[in-house]
Design goal:
The chain is α/β, with parallel strands linked by helices. Helix content is 41%, strand content 19%. It has 11 helices and 10 strands. The strands form 2 sheets. It has a 6-stranded parallel beta sheet, sandwiched between helices. Strand 9 and strand 10 form a beta hairpin. Helix 2 packs across helix 3. The C terminus is likely disordered.
Length: 333
């Protein structure tokens, strides 16, 4: 397969369409995480469909002092990765092509969800992100678009925009791709020195610690539902010398639903230790939120949640998250 490089929407619109068009939106500097998105799009689009990868560094979503100027631009390498993963075309428009009249006066507002977590740290970021996603959806006219779960708040806002504004496109989420040491793949990882990378591993380590605490709690809760653990049962087991089983029965009898506070505490412990590393981790936030609005969940919460973290290591800012499910819907995702 030869991947075609397109620079204008007119070139893209002139292409003959047979099956469904699947779009993967990126800012370039492609890595294995992007390649996974493209491969998933290829699989879902099928042999008769078309997979288009957009490469556009959007100036609207970079705030003052952020890394717009130094954001990696590697189009030649991006083309090779996209082609190997199964893309039919790479749409790499100029800023003038996307914003022909200069910065748009009319933009998409991310609303209250866009002011939380990432939005609080980076004011206006999500307005700029949604504006360019809306533009690119109009320019590429896809049937389905693919986004990674690593940017969980971005994904939630795109889904909300598509639903609220009646975009005729399906949004598909693809799980986060990680390196062997657990670090979530990101185009910004290349900024990290060897020492900074060791510190950055605290992000994924904190999430895994929270996930493990959550899994242990949910396992105990499941056992409490399954075992008729009463004080009488514990006493009976103890009477025949099975003290370990008696202690287990007593613990099961006292088991409570998974506690979000304990999950946060397990993750926070790892992050607190990373503050003392060289170089130190500078935490922006650790949050355990409802993915429908990105507000913090209460201790009696049941349902799907997202454990999210953002921090700086040196001059590089990184984000990561894991999905969890509390209570009646099951155990950790």
């Amino acid at each position: 397969m030869t991947t075609t490089l397109l620079r204008t929407a007119a070139e893209l619109h002139a292409r003959t369409r047979a099956g469904r068009r699947a779009v993967v939106m990126t800012m370039g500097a492609l890595h294995e995480g992007h390649a996974t998105l493209v491969r998933t799009a290829r699989e879902i689009a099928g042999p008769d469909g078309e997979v288009v990868v957009t490469v556009f560094v959007n100036p609207l979503q970079f705030g003052a002092g952020e890394d717009l100027d130094r954001y990696p631009r590697t189009l030649d390498a991006d083309l090779k990765i996209a082609e190997k993963a199964g893309a039919d075309a790479v749409f790499a428009p100029s800023v003038d092509e996307v914003y022909p009249g200069g910065e748009p006066q009319v933009r998409i507002s991310a609303g209250p969800m866009g002011e939380r977590l990432e939005g609080a740290t980076r004011p206006g970021h999500f307005d700029g992100m949604l504006t360019v996603v809306a533009k690119l959806l109009h320019l590429t006219r896809p049937d389905v678009a693919f986004f990674g779960q690593k940017d969980a708040q971005q994904l939630a806002l795109i889904r909300r925009m598509v639903r609220d504004l009646n975009f005729g496109v399906e949004i598909v989420a693809v799980p986060t791709v990680r390196e062997a040491d657990g670090l979530a793949l990101s185009s910004r990882n290349r900024y990290l020195s060897a020492r900074e990378r060791r510190t950055a591993l605290a992000l994924s380590a904190a999430l895994f610690a929270g996930r493990d605490r959550h899994a242990a709690q949910e396992a105990l809760r499941a056992r409490a539902r399954e075992v008729p653990a009463t004080q009488a049962r514990a006493e009976a087991l103890s009477a025949i010398g099975e003290s370990r089983a008696a202690a287990d029965a007593h613990a099961v009898a006292k088991a409570a639903p998974g506690n979000p506070a304990a999950v946060r505490a397990a993750a926070r412990q790892i992050l607190d230790e990373a503050v003392r590393l060289d170089p130190p981790l500078v935490l922006d936030y650790l949050a355990l939120v409802d993915p429908s609005d990105f507000t913090e969940i209460a201790d009696d919460f049941t349902g799907e949640a997202v454990l999210a973290v953002a921090a700086r290591v040196g001059t590089t800012r990184l984000i990561d998250n894991l999905p969890l499910t509390f209570g009646t819907l099951g155990a950790a995702s």
